[in-house]
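Quarterly update from the structural biology core.
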Amino acid sequence: VGSAGTEAGQRAVSEAGADAVVNHRAEGYLEEAKKTAMGGFDVILEMAAHVNLPADLSLAGRRGRVCIVGSKSQDVGVNP
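Predicted structure, tokenized:
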């Protein structure tokens, strides 16, 4: 499953081989993503952890991993 915020981005994610694509700018996209992986995701590649890390943790399955590729230097609001 991949996400993108534009139609061109969604096409690119699909063409890269994603089984499903969600629009991360659409309301309810997290619930839509959760439906595709009922037990949670094994691996999440995060490009904007400063915004998305709390949501990523809710999407990760048991023993899942969040691989942070990018983030701005700011508080992410997560206290494990």
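The chain has a mean pLDDT of 93.
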